[in-house]
Amino acid sequence: MALTLYLHPLASFCHKVLIAFYESEVPFRAVTVDLQDPESAAPVRDAWPVGKIPLLRDEDAGRAVPESSIIIEYVQARRPGPASLLPQDPDARLQARLWDRFFDQYVSVPMQKIVLDRLHPENARDPQGVAAARQTLNTAYAMIDERARRHDWAAGNAFTLADCAAAPALFYAAIVHPFPPALDGLAAYFERLLARPSMRRVLREARPYFGIFPYRDAMPARFLQD
Fold first, then answer.
1. Cα–Cα distance between 44 and 14 in angstroms, integer?
2. Angstrom distance (rounded) from CA 226 to CA 224
3. Is the pLDDT of residue 83 over 80?
4. Concatenated DSSP letters of the chain
């Protein structure tokens, strides 16, 4: 499979796919996309008119594959690697998919609401929407903490698709809405994610771009160097 991944080095959903690829040792070509530049964004918008990244191009099949979870499943099915990110057991697979959706919908989405609101002019900001996003994160944090006290990883005792979603979501969420000190299960799970070589590689590759992250001033110093 000749694979091209269209991405941006700061995007959390792109990080999710990169973590999966690094865990499974998937060979691919990365192409950085600036969605604000029509020429740069053209290959993405031509293949997937909603214009979202990541987008995978399977050159051999002549096929474009959008959406982070679908990209990961597509490659896992066609190029199995050393890491099986989708359990074979049906119930375990459902748990992986459930928690994958959980981290996308209830951590990444509200986190992005908070980040993007800071980019708006003062008179165009949405304080009520940001407050609702923070409340969603509070609920999600408590649920993750409870689960992390019983399991090493999101879907159980093995690293899966769900943890690929969790790592970048929690990385950015912890910056814009820090974890409550009492949630030490959540904090310990986050440290386990940070210890994965795949996650360390993603952060190392993203580091040159951290200066344009809207909450760069709140980023812990430990993420700014190896």
1. 13
2. 7
3. no
4. --EEEEE-TT-HHHHHHHHHHHHHT---EEEE--TTSHHHHHHHHHHSTT--S-EEEETTTTEEEESHHHHHHHHHHHS--S---S-SSHHHHHHHHHHHHHHIIIIIHHHHHHHHHHHS-GGG--HHHHHHHHHHHHHHHHHHHHHHTT-SBTTBSS--HHHHHHHHHHHHHHHHSPPPTT-HHHHHHHHHHHHSHHHHHHHHHHGGGGGGSTTGGGS-GGGG--
pTM listed for this prediction: 0.96
Is the backbone of residue 62 left (phi > 0), alpha (psi -120 to 50) or beta? Answer: left
Section 120-127 average pLDDT: 93
Q: What is the pLDDT of residue 182?
A: 97
Would you list the DSSP string of 168-192? HHHHHHHHHSPPPTT-HHHHHHHHH
pLDDT average, residue stretch 104-121: 97
Q: Has residue 1 got a pLDDT over 80?
A: no
Q: What is the pLDDT of residue 9?
A: 95
